[in-house]
Amino acid sequence: MDPVSIFFFALASIIGIESNSIVSQKATITINPTDRTFEIHQEDLFAIIMTAEDSFSVEDELRQILEFHKNIERKNTDSLTVEEIVFTLNDEQLNTTLKGSYFDSTVLEDAGIYLDKITKDRFYLMNFPDWNIRSSDAVLKENYWSWPVDKTVTIIMEPFNDIPDEYRQHRRSILTYWKQQTGHQSE
Q1: CA torsion angle 133 107 103 64 (round to 10)
Q2: How many CB atoms lie within 10 A of CB 180?
Q3: How far apart are CA 12 and CA 29, in angstroms?
């Protein structure tokens, strides 16, 4: 699973999504370990749709995300709380922002972020060059991004900058699906 999907759907057990196909071109993840809050801003939501079944999967996944706020019980687990998922339009792309809080830093492990088990003073995220990770708050040392446990960090990921042409031709914006499901009219 790619990092953008991991961050956006680390909450899948709450939302009830078993597999995901919606990803984003760019994700900006901000984690405040002092307040134990997170915000994930995803730009240009899309999916690779090659078959009718892929299209149905995307529709179902988006429906589950849109229905999420109707079920308050799903917003909380023992480890985290999802406060909101907000969709916004920017020209012809659909963006989303997810905000929440967590109760224990071990929940971040589902998103690939680990606390140094010995010193407990730093978080680590493995660097994968294809993910195009950058941050002005974290330091890339060897193959890991690292930041102190008492500082807010913002990490930007763009893992789909170089998708192969064979998949690029099947790249579809989620905007059309979102408009259909929300009844949003084109201006």
Answers
A1: 90
A2: 11
A3: 17
Output DSSP code: residue 55. H
pTM confidence score: 0.84
Sign of CA dihedral 165, 166, 167, 172: positive
Count of alpha carbons within 13 Å of 159, Cβ hemisphere only? Answer: 18
| Nearest of 155, 115, 176 to residue 30 by alpha carbon | 155
Residues 80-100 have pLDDT tens digits of: 787 888 889 988 899 988 888
Enumerate long-range contacts of 52-61, CB under 8 Å, 24 or more apart. 54/21, 57/19, 57/21, 58/21, 58/22, 58/172, 58/174, 58/177, 59/177, 59/180, 59/181, 61/17, 61/20, 61/21, 61/22
Q: What is the pLDDT of residues 123-175, one digit of tens each?
A: 999 998 888 999 999 999 999 999 999 999 999 988 888 888 888 899 999 99
CB atoms within 10 A of CB 143: 10
